[in-house]
Design a protein that fits this description.
By secondary structure, the protein is α+β, with helices and mostly antiparallel strands. The protein contains 6 helices and 8 strands, in the order βααβαββααβαβββ.
Length: 198
């Protein structure tokens, strides 16, 4: 039987903004929002399984990225895991899938799975591609029951639900650059945010 993980407290807006603040300041990044949220070092993060493919854009991809349906995309899929230092066990935490127009990343480190995980995560990867003026990260989230594959990958209890989160990075001219989906157990995630009322 699967064991329900301890809660993790996540302020996604703060974590994402923090990466870009550090990048603008020229700081050397040594972690990712995922590693911080799970309280581990970057060396304790791994991907299993991980696949990179070139695929035509679906109708949803085309809508989100503002491209023609069938445009060649780089699609990255992985299960993001934490390595338990005491036991060496690989513990799955989240399922990720992302899409970006392939011609934007062809011949760059973005297309090399062996370089993962990258300090700073996707934000740092996009920055390295020259997207230093990204304007916003749009986020949509729903809660839902996992499908069988998701439940299997995440080793979830039958009754537990997942957060299904889609994030789109948008450039300074309003162009959508990269869209990603994250599936994570809802029971172990407490979402936090702060609203400045001053």
């Amino acid at each position: 039987m699967a064991v329900r993980p301890a809660p993790r407290f996540v302020d996604e807006a703060e974590a994402t903004a923090g990466v870009f603040k550090a990048l603008r300041a020229g700081e050397k990044l040594t972690t990712t929002p995922f590693a911080e949220a799970h309280g581990v070092e970057l060396v304790d993060v791994t991907y299993d399984p991980i696949t990179y493919t070139r695929e035509p854009a679906s109708a949803e991809d085309a809508r989100r990225l503002g491209v023609e349906r069938g445009t060649r995309l780089l699609r990255r899929r992985w299960v993001q895991c934490v390595i338990d230092r005491e036991t060496g066990k690989v513990i799955p935490k989240e399922i990720h899938a992302s899409a970006i127009v392939h011609k934007l990343v062809a011949g760059t480190a973005f297309v090399k799975p062996e370089l993962q995980p990258v300090a700073g995560g996707t934000g740092a990867e996009l920055w390295a591609l020259g997207y230093t003026g990204l304007r916003e990260a749009r986020t949509e989230r729903i809660g839902r029951p996992p499908n069988g594959t998701e439940r299997n990958y995440l080793q979830m209890e039958t009754v537990d639900w997942v957060w299904d989160t889609v994030r789109t990075y948008v450039d300074e001219d309003g162009t959508a650059i990269e869209v990603s989906r994250t599936i994570a157990p809802m029971a172990s995630t407490v979402l936090r945010s702060r609203i400045d009322l001053s």
